[in-house]
Design goal:
Largest sheet: 7 strands, mixed
Number of helices: 4
Strand order of the largest sheet: 2-7-1-8-9-10-11
Strand content: 15-25%
Length: 195
Amino acid sequence: MPPSLGPVRLIGVDGHAGSGKSTFAGRLAAALGGAPVLHLDDVATHEELFGWQERLRDQVLEPLAAGRAAHWTPYDWVERRFGAPRLLEPAPVLLVEGVGAGRRALRPHLARLLWLETAREESWGRGRNRDGRELSDFWDGWERAELAHFSGDPSRPFADTLVRQSGTGYEWTSGAPATPGAHRFVTERHGLPPA
C-alpha cells in the first residue's frame, strides 16, 4: 500500500475499550518486523479522554507528514501529568491504537483502519476486570464518554478490516466501506497467536 502520512503507512487499530487492541497491535507490530506502536492512552488525559486530536496532530501527524521525527509527550495516568518527550522516527509502517484511532480527524491520514470486533459489553467487562474495583468510577465515566464519542464519530463503519479473536489466532474480514456497492466479503485466518 502507498504511504498515507509523508513516508509513513499509518495503520489505525480501533475498537471498544477492553477489546484487545493493545495486544493485537503488539502482535501485529512484531509480525511486521517491529513496527512502532503509538498508544492513544499515552495521548489522552483524564480531562481529555477524546479531546486529544490537536495534540496528536501537532506532536505526531504534522512532523511525520513532513518526513521529520515526531517529539511527543506521553501522559502518565498515575501522576496525572505529561512525562518527558519521546522520539518517534518516520517508519515504513506505524500502528496507532486506541479508542478513536479511526476517528474522522485521523481517517484521511490512515493507510488502513482495523476494527477489533468484540461486543461493547464484553470489551468493557474485560477492561473492568483488568483494572479492578478501584477504577470502577473511572470506568463509569469512560463508558459514558465512549458512547458519546462513537455516537458522534463512529469508526467501525469506515473500517477496512474487522478483526475477531479466535481460539487459534485472529480472523480478518473485510470491513464495510463507506461507499455503497464496494463491499467484498473475505475472511482469512492469520497466524498471530491468540492473546
